[in-house]
Amino acid sequence: MYVAVKGGERAIDNAHAWLAEERRGDTSVAELSLAQIREQLSLAVNRVMAEGSLYDPDLAALAIKQSRGDLIEAIFLIRAYRTTLPRFGYTLPVETETMACDRRISATFKDAPGGQVLGPTFDYTHRLLDFKLAADGEVPEAPEAAPRREPTPHITSFLQGEDIIQREPASEATPGDLTREPMSFPSNRPVRLQSLTRGDEGFVLGMAYSTQRGYARNHAFVGELRIGTVPVEMEIPELGFAIEIGEVELTECETVNQFQGSKTEPPQFTRGYGLVFGQSERKSIAMALVDRALRWEELGEDNLGAAAQDEEFVLSHSDNIQATGFLEHIKLPHYVDFQSELELVRKLRRDAQEAVDEAAAREAAE
């Protein structure tokens, strides 16, 4: 039978108070400031902004602090806050060719036009614990470096000049807005890219890794990876022209993929694309790999039955907020549901036992 929970509201208040105490931790240890989180845990801040669909490092730092470092909970907080903000309009598409690049590399051309800029990267570190950090050691000063300010053409534009890479079709259509319209299937590429950039980094990484292991037979090269800031412009109707309203840091990745050709397309290179808020290399590369795997139909390729080629599977399961909500709801009270299933199982067991007893009685009578 259903038993009502008594004192639930008081228990929840106490749980919130205990949570706040646990979040603060040992009060003899200095409390983290939002500036410390923003500046020293910047990659976590970037992930929260990207998957929360809101570019605001200070709010992302606050969400990380409030969530005790649980990034998915922080992303949930940011998305919830985002829904309260008014929408004034849409900015113009950012021009990543004008990006002030802190980092810009290509795995396809050693002497890439515009040069290779290693920038701040873990790629060449030894992955050994640095105990100087535990001792609060001084950080060595880096040599003076400034972002590359001059326009940097994309690597794929040079391949396009030889006409050996797929040309992206131009479109004047306004892309859908996933944050305002529910996703439907089949979707289009702009909506898929929005979903992937908001998607859980671990899930998108797993899907990308599956393509590299042969599920979708989709071998990729990183044509270009660039990180830097781009200006954001918005058209002001009263002025009649666009003005710069700020700038954002982005990570952009374009992959170059081998393509044997199909009934509708000649042999050529094809592309995958990833664009993410902040410095987020792993996510942008993974996004580009999955984007390319999902393009099988428009390129006339065979569907090999790989998970990364299944649009509904990928996009319906990549959102960590939806996944978390559905997963964690099962820990909430389900007393009535469970009691009904408990009674059903008891009845099935009684019926089965009665059937066994009847069979045994008939056998004994014979």
Structure characterization notes:
This protein is an alpha+beta fold. It has two domains: 70 residues, no CATH class; 196 residues, no CATH class. 41% of the residues lie in helices and 14% in strands. It is built from 13 helices and four strands. A four-stranded antiparallel β-sheet has the order 1-2-3-4. A hairpin with an 8-residue loop joins strand 3 and strand 4. Helix 3 packs across helix 4, helix 4 packs across helix 5 and helix 9 crosses helix 10. The longest helix is centred in the C-terminal third of the chain and has 31 residues. The chain is globular and about 95 Å long. The two termini are 43 Å apart.
Layout of secondary structure:
Layout: H1 8-24, H2 34-40, H3 42-52, H4 57-66, H5 71-82, E1 100-105, H6 131-134, H7 155-161, H8 189-198, H9 201-212, E2 220-236, E3 241-259, E4 268-277, H10 281-293, H11 311-317, H12 320-328, H13 335-365
Helix pairs in contact: 2-4, 3-4, 3-5, 4-5, 8-10, 9-10
Features:
366 residues; alpha+beta; 2 domains; 4-stranded antiparallel sheet
Proportion in helices: 40-55%
Per DSSP E runs of 2 or more residues, the count of β-strands stands at 4
What is the domain tally?
2
What is the number of helical segments per DSSP (H or I, 4+ residues)? 13
Following the backbone from N to C, one meets helices and strands in this order, namely HHHHHEHHHHEEEHHHH
Radius of gyration: 27 Å
- Approximate shape: globular
Hey, roughly how much beta strand do the residues contain?
Answer: 5-15%
Q: Biggest sheet: strands, sense, closure?
A: 4 strands, antiparallel
* Unreliable stretches: none
Mean pLDDT, nearest integer?
88
Strand order of the largest sheet: 1-2-3-4
